[in-house]
Amino acid sequence: MSFEAHKKLDAWKISVELVKEIYKLTASFPKEEIYGLVSQMRRAAISIPSNLAEGAARKNDREFVQFLYIALGSLSELDTQIHIARELGYLRGKEVGESAQLLDKASMLISGLIRKKRERGSR
Predict the structure, then answer these.
(1) pLDDT in the model for residue 93
(2) In whole angstroms, what separates CA 109 from the centre of its chain?
(3) For 69-80, what is each residue's pLDDT tens digit?
């Protein structure tokens, strides 16, 4: 893939939207969480498109797949952090709706990329 190829991936586009949504959601968190949960959620969110970009720049599909798995791990981490934020009362159900949809869509797209790359590699 080329240097800009990651920008064509639907998974990358959706995960960038997820980053923006997480920044909006965490903007209203208590100030004491700025270096705690806010920082963790933002880092996990940013990690998703960043790993997609880094993986897409790798020379072979096997390396790309490793970064796709890291992106899935960051999605899972972020999902857990959203759950914790709800449990702590920082988020309500309706506020989480958009981010939950983006999480699900990103997960589906990344999982699809993994399947595609692994199938191609096994030929």
Answers:
(1) 83
(2) 11
(3) 999 999 999 999
> Which residue segments constitute the domains of the chain, with CATH numbers given?
5-121 (1.20.1440.60)
pLDDT digits 0-9 by tens, 18-45: 999 999 999 999 999 999 999 999 999 9
Supply angle C-alpha 118, 16, 2, rounded to 5: 50
Per the CB < 8 A criterion, the answer to whether 116 and 68 are in contact is no
Measure Cα distances from 115 to 6, 36, 65, 102 in Å: 17, 35, 9, 20
Q: Which contacts qualify for 91-96: CB closer than 8 Å, 24 or more apart?
A: 91/25, 95/25, 96/25
Whether 2 shows a pLDDT value over 70: the answer reads no
User: Could you give the CA distance from residue 118 to residue 95 in angstroms, rounded to a whole number?
Assistant: 36
Distance, in Å, from the CA atom of 78 to the CA atom of 84, rounded to the nearest integer, reads 10
Look up residue 109 and give its amino acid: L
